[in-house]
Design goal:
Layout lengths: L6 H4 L6 E8 L7 H12 L7 E3 L13 H22 L2 E10 L2 E10 L2 E7 L9 H4 L11 E3 L2 E7 L6 H9 L4 E5 L7 H15 L2 E5 L10 E3 L5 E4 L5 E8 L1 H9 L4
Parallel strand pairs: 1-2, 2-3, 7-8, 8-9
Antiparallel strand pairs: 1-12, 3-4, 4-5, 6-7, 9-10, 10-11
Length: about 260
């Protein structure tokens, strides 16, 4: 959960430009192997040396019936993604059900080139789906950013998107790209579209948002610091991709300074 030192200094591979991918598909609660297979099918289309964001708790769904099994399977998936990220030089962001000291958390992970560089619990649990009864929430002090080979990534979990103070704090920590992992319901699809663009625009940062499909809204988005949508998915499963140039952040701040 620490903020790592400069990758440029350590390994000389910090990139100013790279591709971002957002994966979207339907996660079925309890169908672990099926979910993982769908993820891998889409994940294989992502290119080397890129940023990949996957939907919230994609390996298991919110499988409250057997949280122990869900956390154990999620641990295996996380270990696999660490290996994949090393082999493909990827930065990968996603959430899983995680058990720590007998307590369950919805934890967001940032994996960078074979290392888990950040893990933190979801700060704002969604009450309408029972999260507040099943998970322990993190607090504001748990918020972190991670310096990766794809810039300084600020992970955001679904419902947290509704709280502008969270993303503002992450920006103050140095965030360049907000990576949002979500299962955002179809009934609130328009909220999702508005809030993803608004958070990128008001903070003058890139935002890469991955959402589930099926009962979820889909419409994964990649937004630039001007609030321009670089890529957007529909309601079907698939991947979207966009080119990220971190120097755009400096251009936007110079042309439109906001204090």
């Amino acid at each position: 959960m620490k903020l790592f030192g400069s990758k440029k200094e350590e390994g000389g591979y910090l990139k100013k430009t790279f591709k971002a991918f957002a994966i979207q598909f339907e996660t079925v609660n309890g169908e672990f192997e099926r979910n993982y297979a769908r993820f891998l099918t889409l994940f294989n289309f992502c290119e080397r040396e890129s940023l990949v964001v996957a939907p919230e708790v994609f390996p298991t769904g919110f499988f409250y019936q057997d949280m122990d099994s869900a956390s154990k399977f999620s641990e295996k998936v996380t270990e696999d993604i660490v290996k994949f990220s090393e082999g493909m030089s990827l930065t990968v962001v996603f959430t899983v059900i995680e058990k720590i000291n007998g307590k369950f958390f919805n934890s967001i992970k940032v994996i960078d080139r074979g290392k888990e560089v950040l893990s933190r619990p979801k700060v704002k649990l969604f009450p309408l789906t029972g999260e507040t009864e099943q998970f322990f929430a993190g607090d504001i002090g748990d918020l972190r950013v991670a310096e990766t080979s794809c810039g300084i990534i600020a992970p955001v979990v679904c419902f947290e998107l509704r709280y502008p103070e969270i993303l503002k704090l992450l920006k103050e920590m140095g965030a360049q790209v907000f990576a949002v992992s979500a299962q955002w319901g179809r009934a609130r699809k328009e909220h999702w579209k508005v809030l993803t663009v608004a958070r990128a625009l008001e903070n003058q940062r890139f935002l890469v948002a991955s959402n589930g499909t099926g009962e979820m809204a889909g419409n994964s988005l990649i937004v630039d610091p001007w609030g321009r949508i670089l890529a957007q998915g529909g309601e079907a499963e698939g991947i979207i991709t966009g080119n990220i140039n971190l120097s755009v952040i400096e251009q936007v701040e110079r042309k439109l300074p906001i204090k």
